[in-house]
Design brief:
Zinc-ribbon domain-containing protein, alpha+beta, about 45% helix
């Protein structure tokens, strides 16, 4: 078995597993290059074209992604991060909401950034990067 064949079979298995976990399916597999658009179907029956690399990056059905999620879902996502969603009204995934982390930092961010890009508190992220750099500098001494 060649390395190319092994890599291709793992790629197919990975994208099929992601689709199955979401209740969907890859509709064909002739060319699974990461940038080649393939046909997919979600659990609600929507079909669309998307590159398998995007699926591996956790981008799924565009029609389902545009479904109104609501403020309750935003609060649930914030709680999963140990924080809260301060905003009272959800408009869409592109309209900024106010968030608060467990440390009390507040900021504005799009729901799509928190949900799809897995971002959270920029202040905590900055502090973590700074602490990491300081630790690396100490280790070099």
């Amino acid at each position: 078995m060649t390395t190319r064949f092994v890599a291709r079979s793992r790629w197919i298995a990975a994208v099929r597993e992601i689709a199955a976990r979401r209740g969907g399916a890859l509709l064909g597999e002739r060319d699974l290059r990461s940038r080649k658009k393939l046909r997919w179907r979600c659990a609600q029956g929507h079909e669309w074209l998307r590159a398998s690399g995007d699926i591996l990056d956790d981008r799924w059905c565009p029609r389902c992604a545009d479904t109104r999620l609501g403020i309750a879902e935003m609060q649930r996502m914030a709680a999963a991060h140990g924080g809260s969603c301060i905003s009272k009204k959800y408009v869409d995934r592109h309209t900024h909401l106010q968030w608060e982390c467990g440390e009390g930092h507040r900021w504005w961010a799009r729901p799509s950034a928190v949900r799809d890009q897995h971002t959270w508190c920029p202040d905590c992220a900055h502090e973590a990067r700074r602490a990491n750099l300081q630790a690396m500098a100490r280790d070099r001494r």
